[in-house]
Design brief:
Length: about 325
């Protein structure tokens, strides 16, 4: 899919100044919410050592939605997602791989450095080995983990994690109470296992109802950014639009005008080699429509609002090469 130039509308003359204000507003709010969230975590240390599964319950915590709308606003509507951290590690992080292998056909664990969320390492179902536990050597610092389960047919379990041989998040059989007051105690801090049902992502069906002026102001600039994409540095557009995703996930994206339908045409080998997921977002970056693409031609119905889409492609095995621009062709129709 090539980055073609579409005619720019006259409305860009007054939308561009608003987009610049939105960009500045987003940067300020992101910084402030990051500070508030850091204070929140410091006062509730249990949260940093528990798997937080993205769900209706987690979103009921007032600060969570603003955090996600600034840290990861391109919602992955296709995976059950759990995160744990930030926690300190001096030498090594060990992860029990049995639960992921038993929970879903496709999964990925990404280790991020905190607070800049640079990717440190990745484990996934693509590289199935014999080891039951993977140990990653790390430099002293703080780290967070994100586990994404795809193609789930039942309940999923989030694994135990150890930092320097001290349990951060335990497995299902470990019921030892946590020692949160004295993390350097000889008793390792342990937390009850976290599980989630295959219906955990049902909250996405109504997430767009959370639209308001605040979220529109935060993400107003993204639509304009994508309109101007052919004239902007690609690295800048990528940094602003794409999520902190998996290293093995490739993305295709563009803006969509109001009342505009999309026709997707896939290369004949696409479905053999990749799992392909489509999400359409409102201008507030809330999901309006999402589906797994399972046919070579797909039509996405028009919506009454301006927005943008994101297509995620995940290889089905390690031999599959990265997708090229011809994998998916997108046509826009009024």
């Amino acid at each position: 899919m090539s980055n073609t130039r579409r005619p720019l509308p006259l409305s860009l003359l007054w939308e561009l100044p608003l987009a610049v204000l939105s960009f500045c507003f987003f940067k300020v709010v992101k910084t402030l919410i990051g500070l508030f969230y850091g204070i929140y975590l410091s006062r509730d240390r249990n949260r940093a050592t528990q798997w937080q599964v993205l769900s209706t319950d987690v979103l009921s915590i007032p600060i969570v939605l603003p955090v996600l709308m600034t840290k990861g606003p391109r919602w992955n509507t296709h995976a059950i997602i759990g995160t744990v951290g930030p926690f300190a590690a001096q030498e090594a992080i060990s992860i029990d791989l049995t639960p992921p292998r038993q929970s879903a056909q496709s999964w990925t664990i990404v280790v991020y450095r905190y607070p800049d969320y640079a990717t440190v390492a990745q484990l996934s179902s693509l590289e199935q080995g014999a080891e039951l536990q993977h140990t990653l050597k790390v430099a002293p610092g703080k780290y967070s983990l994100a586990l994404r389960y795809y193609e789930c047919s039942g309940a999923v379990e989030f694994p135990s994690v150890q930092a320097d041989a001290v349990t951060v998040a335990p497995g299902a059989d470990d019921q030892t109470p946590a020692d949160t007051e004295n993390p350097s105690s000889s008793e390792p801090p342990t937390i009850n296992a976290q599980t989630a049902s295959a219906e955990t992502n049902a909250f996405y069906r109504h997430l767009s109802d959370r639209h308001n002026g605040f979220y529109l102001a935060l993400h107003y600039y993204i639509y304009t950014l994508l309109q101007l994409r052919p004239w902007l540095p690609e690295a800048f557009v990528t940094r602003e639009y794409l999520p902190v995703g998996n290293p093995d996930t490739a993305f295709f994206y563009d803006y969509v005008e109001a009342q505009q339908a999309l026709s997707l045409s896939l290369h004949p080998t696409a479905l053999q080699n990749y799992d392909i997921y489509f999400t359409l977002y409102s201008r507030s970056s809330l999901p309006l429509f999402y589906t797994k693409i399972e046919q070579e031609t797909v039509t996405v119905p028009p919506f009454p609002t301006k927005g943008y889409y994101l297509i995620r492609t995940r290889p089905r095995n390690v031999q599959v090469p990265p997708p090229d621009s011809q994998l998916i062709q997108v046509a826009f129709t009024a």
